[in-house]
Amino acid sequence: MSTQTAIRESRVSRTAAMALMLVLAVYFLLPIYFLLVAATKPQGDLASTFGLAFSHFDLAKNLGTLFGRSDGVFGRWALNSVIYAVLGAAVGTLISALCGYALATFTFRGREFLFNVILGGVLVPTTALALPLFLLFSATGIVNTYLAVFLPSIVSPFGVYLARIFTVAAVPREIVESARLDGAGEFRTFFSVAFKLLTPSLVTIFLFQFVGIWNNFFLPMVMLQKESLFPITLGLYEWNGQTARVSLLQESVITGALVSIVPVIIVFVLLQRFWRTGLASGALK
Amino acid sequence: MTDIATGTTGAVAAPGDLRRHNGGGPRASTIVAFLLPFFLPFVLFYLVPIAYAVWQSLLVVRRTAGQYGTSYTAFGGVTQYAQVFQNGEFWASIGRIALFGIVQVPVMLFVALIMALLLDTPLLRLKAFFRVSAFMPYAVPGVIAAIMWSFLYSPQLSPVVDVLKGIGLHADFLGPGAVLWSAANVSTWLWTGYNMLIMFSALQSIPQELYEAATIDGASNWAIAWRIKVPIIAPSIILTTVFSIIGTLQLYAEPAVLRQISSNISSTFTPNMLAYAVASGNNYQQAAAISVVIAVITFVLSFGFMRLTAKRAGL
Questions:
Q1: Which residues of A touch B302 (CB under 8 A)?
Q2: What is the residue extent of each domain of chain B?
Q3: I want to staple B257 with a disulfide (CB 3.0 to 4.6 A). Which of A162, A203, B146, B309 is the partner?
Q4: What number of C-beta contacts closer than 8 Å exist between A and B?
Q5: For position B212, what pLDDT does the model report?
């Protein structure tokens, strides 16, 4: 192959690669762009104007309607989502870290057995657990409370798995040993020495669990009847089901969808590097 | 995973080492204190529900004789399972999900693989933009994604339908034949970037020296991609496939949302929807049996796929 054809070939493949990636980028961004445009329109313009072009800019009014609807129930849903996801992921990360650290650092009988049980748990789809959990919780009266969604959400076998890998990679045994020799107890060693070394990894574990809880729909749907306990996903789903009867709800569903995804997308983009580490270790080990 | 703590290679460990291990390690109560905060909820909210579902699925509800008989539960053996397998709606939902999975999973993973490979070559500019735009949908909950797409499918609102009409095509995304693929599109939109990033992270961790020899030998980018890169990241591709199989079998939110705007999705469209519909009818034992069957199918398929590919790759 002569140099010239090679150059021409590489220019062709460069262009083809760029074109393909651009088409895909449009595909990924189109629904979000549509939502952004639709959230700024008055309800009447949704059907009568072209979906990808702005018409009247009514975003502020739509936001007012959204948060004012049914005594501000949307704000309540947003707060609930934050409680379930932030608090749940924080508690979940802490208990995953303790367990994963112990599995990586301590030698004891049955350790590998316990770890394999946890690995099996990674493969158990959480939707399969929702219905039996509902039956158990209704027997104990937890159904239709915050705890019904919160308690199952803190358990993340994948988090323990990551915590164990990260501990092996980031916490050198010598440091743990020397902290012990200095007379520090195991918990002190964990919180004062290992915790700092593990912080970036803990952010990764937190993010995975946060998204898992934030996106969860089946569990709250099974557990909750009281509207005031709904997370955003369930609330918007209910509203979306009523748009056939109350067509004015449509604009609030659209604006609500936008409000619910924008903060998470921003956090995502800002914390990108933590995803990369998590996804790489999840895939390679 | 290798056991680093006990990985003493060579002959017998020195007696001094052993003593240190036994004497200097943490007490059993300390280890339990580390493990319990996770294991207690894990047992209560993971293992107990699984055991409970299995137990429920073995029960039947019977009535005492007579006109005013009361109902009671009794051990029914595999009665519930026999009913699941005789249920036409169950097989129909399995059939839909199988068709969905056989098409959607390979398409999604192929696109993800191509994107990951392209992002790993010097062919592209704007790499960060492409990576972020593809990953962004992962931040969107399935329900919200389905709501967004349902507007793009809706004949009244959709700019896509408008554009297609402009060039003479009458698209009906919610029709009886199309609606399954409209749901598949939502899943593809949600998960392609996530899978791409798993594959891309694996590609990034391959040492560059591996390609250098091949480049000097005059191998093209394509040859390097298919002959060297893809085989090396095979474990990641297997992992994404297994996750996708699990996800497909659990499908609920996306079709449930599309059901709100399309009469072509029944309440028993997917196995999970069927389980929920049966549970809503207070037939918990039958719902438990369906859940157990779905879980078993999930396990068999994902382990089966892992074994199959591991064998073929000679691992």
A1: 123
A2: 15-57, 79-312
A3: B146
A4: 281
A5: 80
